[in-house]
Amino acid sequence: MSTILDERKDQIHRTGEGAIDIACNRDSLAGAVSQRACVFCGSRVVLYPISDALHLVHGPIGCAVYTWDIRGSLSSGPELFRLSFSTDLQETDVIFGGERKLEAALDELIDRHSPKAAFVYSTCIVGLIGDDMEAVCRKMTEKKGIPVLPVMSEGFKGNKRAGYLAACKAMFKLIGTGDTSGISPLSINIFGDFNLAGEIWIIREYFERMGVQIVANVTGDGRVADIGRCHGAALNLVQCSGATLDLARMMEEEYGTPYMRVSYLGIEDMADALYQVADFFKDKDPGIVDRTRVLVREELQKLMPELARYREDLEGKRVAMYVGGSFKAFSLVKAFRHLGMEVVMVGSQTGTKEDYAELEQITDPGTVIIDDANPLELSHFIKEKDVDVFVGGVKERPIAFKLGVGFCDHNHERKEALEGFVGMLNFAREIHSSVMSPVWQFAPRRANRMAAAKKEAVNE
Amino acid sequence: MSKPVSIKKVKPNYVSTTNACKLCTPLGASLAFRGVEGAIPFLHGSQGCATYMRRYIISHFREPVDIASSALGEKNAIYGGGPNLKKGILNVMKKYEPSLIGVATTCLTETIGDDVPRNLKEFRSEFGDLDLPDLVEVSTPSFSGTHTDGWHGAVRSLVEQLCTTRSADTGRVNILPNMVSCEDVRHLKDICRDFGIHATILPDISETLDGPALEDYVKIPSGGTPVAEIKEMSGARGTIEFGRCLPKATGGTSLEKTFGVKNHRIGLPMGLRESDRLFETLETISGKPMPRRYELERGRLVDAYVDGHKYVFGKRAVVYGEEDLVTGLCAFLSEIGVDVVLAGTGSRKKGLDAAIAQVTNGVARMAPEVREGVDFFDISEEAASLKPDLLIGHSKGYRYAKAWGIPLIRVGFPIHDRFGGQRIHHLGYRGAQTLFDRVVNAVIEKKQADSSIGYGYI
Ligand code: SF4
Ligand code: SF4
After folding, report:
1. Nearest Cβ partner of A31 from B56, B64, B87?
2. How far, in Å, from the CA of A91 to the mean position of ligand 1?
């Protein structure tokens, strides 16, 4: 029996085997054990790192518990975002409606924590019982004097991407509320970086060395006040597969702020991001190009010799990856080339047709490209491609480990900074420490193979 | 036992939860279903719930946890999820070839009122020509219960829906162990084997959620309670179910009522006295005396209690988690002289107060404040004035332990910030030994760390 359900066959492609036409952005198939979460998950990801806001999940308890402080996003100040708030709907609320409880919860929590704003997430059940969250939020905004913003993120109304959009819409309401005086003409907002393990601090430092002011890091170590005035920045930098692209587009339309898509992962993409920004500002400050060049050179001088040491060991090893957004996958494919490694499978939860077409361009023939995969498919390709290391998130980790394959956590829960030049070094170190560990010799898949090879050698 | 005067705070009407001390109902059901041989849990609802629960469980067990979902979308939410449920079951059958599919509802399908039993009945008749797995369903709305309700509900459903006929005497003993760790289940199996008892432990997560490294990715891990044995639970000599806060109707009571299988309800065997009850029950059922190795374990435990009593006497502990785990911890802590000052659980109306009074009777120096339906915000508000020395419960209490500068002794589920959560041993004399060593060492460690001298001998 085949591992792949017929209905999923058009969501899998191999580079080089005909034109790519992957079906994507579909609802997950019933019974397929998708690795995906829901709309709510998408908006929670984007908004979560706004650290001085109250994040209240309107729904039964689970939705809030499972998203309680699970991300590696760090804050340089407030820690409010790391608490888990829920209206914990009970049966009577489901029958009679949860609006009064929501109101009371906001009343209580806003007084208790004095947040700068509150985000209220709707979950599946709220969509069903028909609470008018917008009305409650409007009322509480007036009463409490802070923005109380509804996030329309009912889990069943689409997939994670719909959640990104819901989050962007909620956030957009904050923008334009603050004073923009004192903002430099050389200024940017950082979108779509979540400050996992403090990565945004690395990136900020690069831009500051270039002489660029950062008005708001919207989705990482974020602050309500910064977001309120971020329309005063000259440029938006958007990282990640579309999580905040909608927000950038809204800002372009409303405030005329241009945006650029960038990635801070890997050497080329990191350098590219800096050069693109320098190029953008060079008319206003011609010196910026040189400053950037010096910065990149300095960083590379530190990095390259160290990378070379890891590369010696890693050359020729095979990699598979399954990530949330496919934009990250582009950077990772390139980053692995620097380590002399071969990418043989790339998958994503939320890729678009364009994303997959680009992946097909940059991967070697035979590479498996896959949309919305599940454990059986992932394990199938890990075996088929005889992978040495797998890149993914918490749910993928045990799949790799059971098959005796190294693993690198590259999702929202990572605790190791992997962005920027220094991040590239951490990344290499992490891959190295997994791939080169002696434990794989004992994992049955390899152990048995080694034993068989030995036997053969003796027989010859 | 003297109860200290406590000013019972009148709580304002409960409105919101901060850092919940409970999980949602289908998660408990999924865990229980995972302890059945060849079974796969299936959540009837939207995709998010299943994925989140998988992630949560994986972080604790570090094992692949495949939970299927009917992945309902907007249309299904309006017109009913029946068709997706059937399609999902077919897909799971095709790919996983399970011998049992455990279907649990979610808040969504409970709210739209999907009739799962009817859907499954239709499914059986529509696809009767296929080789169908056993289908077991349980209703698990999280707006009226917690993960423990999901667990007990699933166990009861398994018993009632699979064991439908009176079986001939199997000579076996049914054990319904409650939500305990993989290590605990392994220990129970050892005990039964040493007593010469063939036990049907339901569920048995010892292998399915703590499996060995294998050559291949297995779709459904080996181990778990055999379905055939569940079907014959009516032929057992008796049932032992663990828990003093169990719902009225359980798998155990149902077997007793329908088939007259005697149900022995005892607490989680934690600590010396509650473990004694387990061994006494086993002696009664098997007619054999306690095997020598457990005599020795018991003796060593008492010896350790004596050796270590001074380190822990009078220490103040805050305990939280599942209602029965909390009860078991109180039993254990009270007998070593630790004063439980607050015992909290996220569940409601479980009779925790009475259960704790029962298990601590005669040894505790004081009765703890007992709180049902609490979250960590409530616990921390009260705990601040109670000045605890120890916090005992799952990982989620870490930030409070850190803030109060006291050790957190990790037990139960989930353990997300330490390694080996599934191998924590809580039950029996040996489980008590493990816990005791950890408690004593935590106290010593704290003393050592706080001391300016840094005693090398303590
Ligand atoms: S909707 Fe209900 S079942 Fe789903 S995660 Fe939330 S609480 Fe749990
Ligand atoms: S109930 Fe809905 S919003 Fe909550 S986790 Fe499940 S799918 Fe997501």
Report:
1. B87
2. 13
Residues A372-418: tens digit of each pLDDT:
888 889 999 999 999 999 999 888 999 999 999 999 988 777 888 99
Smallest CA separation from ligand 2 atom 2, residue: A155
b/e per residue B138-173 (b: at least 16 CB within 10 A): bbbbbbbbbbbbbbbbbbbbbbbbbbeeebeebebb
Q: What is the mean pLDDT of each run of 10 residues along chain B (458 residues)?
A: 43 75 96 98 94 94 94 88 95 95 96 95 95 97 94 98 97 97 98 97 97 90 97 97 97 98 98 98 96 97 97 97 98 98 95 97 93 94 92 96 96 96 97 98 94 82
**A-interface mutation test, from B47, B75, B96, most A Cβ less than 10 A away:** B47
Q: What is the pLDDT of residue B13?
A: 52
Closest to B377 in 3D by CA, of B409, B344, B330: B344
Contact A62 B217 (CB under 8 A): no
Give pLDDT, residue B3.
44
Of B18, B25, B27, the CB nearest to A84: B18
Instruction: Report the nearest-CA residue for atom 8 of ligand 1.
Output: A62
List, chain by chain if needed, residues with CB within 6 Å of any ligand 1 atom. A 59-63, 123-124; B 24, 26, 45, 49, 52, 106-107, 142
pLDDT at B8: 44
Position in ligand 1 atom list of the atom nearest CA A64: 6
Long-range contacts of B132-136 (CB under 8 A, 24+ apart): B132/B93, B133/B38, B133/B93, B133/B98, B133/B99, B133/B100, B133/B101, B134/B99, B134/B100, B134/B101, B134/B161, B134/B162, B134/B227, B135/B89, B135/B100, B135/B101, B135/B103, B136/B33, B136/B100, B136/B101, B136/B102, B136/B103, B136/B161, B136/B162
- Chain A residues in contact with B143 by the CB 8 A cut-off are 60, 89-91, 93-94, 125
| pLDDT single digits (tens) A17-69 | 777 777 777 777 888 888 788 899 999 989 999 999 999 999 999 999 999 98
* Locus of tokens 């500002």: A281
Beta strand pairing status for A368-371 and A12-14?
A: antiparallel
Q: Side chain identity at B155, as an amino acid letter? A: V
**Residues B208, B223: contact at Cβ < 8 Å?**
yes
Whole-model pTM: value is: 0.93
How far is it, in rounded angstroms, from Cα A160 to Cα A241?
Answer: 11
Name the residue of B142, B143, B144 to mutate for ligand 1: max ligand atoms within 8 A of Cβ: B142
